[in-house]
Amino acid sequence: MLAAVRNFVIAFLIAALVFGLIAWFITIFIADNVIGIADSPDTEGVGDVTFPPEETRPVDPDGPKPPSYPDIPGNSFTVLLVGTDYRPDDFIDYFEDFVNGTVTNAKLGLLQKPMRTQNADLIILVTVSEETRQIVFASIPSNTRVTVNGSYRLLGERYDKGGVEEIVDFANYLTAVPIDYYIKANITDAGTIIDVIDGVSVNVPVDIMNPYYNPDWTEEDAEWSGITGERDHDTRIAIHAGERTINSSNIFALMHYRTESASVSERDFVIMELARQTLRKAVSPEYLSRAPELFTRIQRYTDSNITVDDLNNSLELFRHYNEFSISTITYPGSYSTLDGKDCFIPDLTEAYEAFRAYRQ
Fold first, then answer.
1. Strand, coil or helix: what is 269?
2. Which residue has the higher pLDDT, 11 or 99?
3. 45 phi/psi in degrees, rounded to 5
4. Comparing C-alpha atoms, which of 128, 136, 131 is closest to residue 72?
5. Which one has a higher pLDDT value, 259 or 92?
6. Which of 25, 73, 282, 300 has the largest count of CB atoms under 10 Å?
7. CA dihedral sign of residues 291, 292, 293, 297
8. Where are the domains of the chain?
9. pLDDT tens across 131-183, in order?
10. Is 242 helix (H, G, I), strand (E, B) or coil?
């Protein structure tokens, strides 16, 4: 009887050890290869993705070692910058304008004037790593094709349906990088924010046209167009090529980026340069010393989950800004059309590989 019990115990322990090792390997596999799936949007057709395996090649013990830096108070973090095209001071044909009766005579014959939608026009992921002294900017095209309930949609247009939370979820899905914070602002408020630091100097590679330029414009067109107030429809060039200061007076023209022959990738590069130069100026001693005061002012013009405590915890990182290398990632993919609109088709496999080093 005792021998039978002993054999049972031994067999049980062996089985527990074997299955425990199997469970351990499964856990490691899931943790390393499926990171981010739990944070993907709660929509059909989004989460069915297998993330690429982690690097399995052995590390050369005699190879170069990554640089080691002294610790800086503050934690590494990622933040998603979302700029929307909402401009209530310039247009009066948004949904709420129809509801409150601001828009009148919204019919032209049998045609019903469509409501203006709010879209995410700018989506930039920024990672700040205290451990590697890196700040990385990555622009996610607003016309990225995503799948929602089994149908293709454009990422930027999802803001009108699901708000900034849905854009954050999709950005997490498209990069597999956990996103700690977000900052959302419309174009008008973005200009006001840049004015707080007295504008930002950016190298503009080509002449940018006035987005309102229309030599055939008549006052009768105003009501149907939804444009409010006085607009300059005669000036053709809003921003000439060269080193230019961007502020509230011309940021819409820069964001609109209407040129003779510029590509979408060039526009994204210039907008990312604006983001980089804004950060560079904001963390200069002149403005960093006033960070809590400026942050309080900026909060009025943004929607963000960053708190004053979060800012204070990161101030020391920004005081060491000159120690950080600044780089960019071009999101991999190709261009096509969707319902007659240009769209960007993301290459998720390449994207997950490119962003893997920035998962925290």
1. helix
2. 99
3. 75, 10
4. 131
5. 259
6. 282
7. positive
8. 34-55+76-358
9. 888 899 999 999 999 999 999 999 999 999 899 999 999 999 999 999 999 99
10. strand
What is the per-residue pLDDT across 85-139, written as a single tens digit (0 to 9) for each?
A: 888 777 777 766 666 666 655 554 445 666 788 899 899 999 998 888 889 999 9
DSSP 335: E
Residue whose C-alpha is closest to residue 143's, from 152, 135, 133, 134? 152
**At 357, which helix (H) or strand (E)?**
none
Residue in the structure block whose two tokens are 């950080």 = 324
**How confident is the model over 309-335, as pLDDT tens digits?**
888 788 788 888 888 898 889 899 999
Contact 160, 117 (CB under 8 A): yes
Going by their DSSP bridges, the two strands 107-108 and 111-112 should be labelled as antiparallel
Classify domain 34-55+76-358 at the CATH topology level: Aminopeptidase (3.40.630)
Strand 181-186 vs strand 77-84: parallel, antiparallel, or unpaired? parallel
